[in-house]
Write a structure and sequence with these properties.
By secondary structure, this protein is an alpha/beta fold. The chain has 2 domains: 56 residues, Spermidine Synthase, Chain: A, domain 2 (Roll), CATH 2.30.140.10; 226 residues, Vaccinia Virus protein VP39 (Rossmann fold, 3-Layer(aba) Sandwich). 30% of the residues lie in helices and 32% in strands. It is built from 10 helices and 13 strands. The protein has a 7-stranded mixed sheet, sandwiched between helices. Strands 1-2-3-4-5-6 form a 6-stranded antiparallel sheet, covered by helices on one side. Strand 5 and strand 6 form a beta hairpin. Helix 6 crosses helix 7. The longest helix has 15 residues. The protein is globular and about 50 Å long.
Length: 294
């Protein structure tokens, strides 16, 4: 990524880049694993970049984080989930969404990169909104696979908020069958996994299909869909595994959406929840018409 006094260039995909005008460069550094930049952009507000790619923008992060967190939290049996684990999510917005639920007694966020956590805690208060200081929250700076290996008490909800499954990406192994099986083993009976699986179009299509097929093989039931995030310049894949929104009738789902979170969602309502759990024809066809049980 190129950072100039008033401009940031995001090398969006091979052969394509996007430039953003900058109001203020808030943080620029490097951890053991990646380059980290936080900037206040003219069009997007405070925004996190990792290794030259836009990760989370103040403008529309709620679209991504509500879609990733809230469906799984609403699926958990009454009175709601008690124990929740977030894998990744260093900017704290996923944790924020989890902690909107009064049923949560313990929410642990596991992220390998402490530099990202500290920088986001200081410079992205609009993302986490104090979630790191909630007494129910625990922040663990550890590899997600190692953390789950050490856990004995299961979780009601697992939320996978780690970078998308690029073939050469450092987190690629976390999208493979052994780790998916480990996540299933760390869920309670009736527990649910919520996972992002990347953009699912163009060069990312085959990787997305592979992840969804493996999830179906491991969990049996999946609810795959996509959400449009403007700062990602397209749709982003979200999937529930282990349970499906089809289990809930509209009245129950609408009641839980009104009563469980402590604050109304900015983007989610009953119709968008239902619409999110759908796939375009090409992706559904590659999966054999998913949202089915084995």
């Amino acid at each position: 990524m190129t950072v100039e006094p008033r401009r940031i260039r995001d090398e969006f995909t091979p052969g394509e880049s996007i430039e953003y005008d900058v109001r203020e460069l808030l943080f620029e550094g490097r951890s053991e694993w990646q380059e980290i930049v936080i900037a206040d952009l003219v069009t997007h507000g405070r925004t996190l970049f990792l290794d030259g790619n836009l990760q989370s923008a103040e403008l529309d992060e709620h679209l991504y984080h509500e879609a990733l967190v809230q469906p799984a939290m609403l699926l958990a049996d009454d009175p709601g989930p008690r124990r929740v684990a977030i894998l990744g999510g260093g900017e704290g917005a996923t944790l924020r969404e989890v902690l909107k639920h009064g049923s949560v007694e313990h929410a642990v966020m596991v992220d390998l990169d402490g530099v990202v956590i500290d920088a986001c805690r200081e410079h992205l208060p609009g993302h986490h909104r104090g979630a790191f200081d909630d007494p129910r929250a625990e922040v663990v700076r550890q590899d997600a696979a190692a953390y789950l290996e050490d856990q004995d008490e299961p979780f009601d909800v697992l939320i996978f908020d780690i970078v998308d499954p690029a073939d050469a990406g450092p987190a690629r192994h976390l999208f493979e069958t052994p780790f998916l099986e480990r996540m299933r083993e760390r869920l309670t009976d009736g527990g649910v996994l919520s996972m992002q699986y990347g953009p699912a179009y163009g060069e990312h299509f085959d990787a997305a299909v592979g992840v969804l097929r493996r999830l179906r093989d491991v969990f049996g039931t999946i609810d795959a869909g996509r959400v449009f995030v403007p700062s990602y310049h397209g749709c982003w894949g979200m999937v529930l595994a282990g349970r499906s929104l089809d289990e809930l009738d509209d009245e129950t789902l609408a009641r839980r959406l009104r009563s469980r979170p402590s604050a109304p969602a900015r983007s989610l309502d009953l119709s968008t929840l239902r619409a999110q759990a759908s796939l375009p024809r090409d992706l559904a066809g590659a999966l054999g018409g998913e949202r089915s049980e084995r």
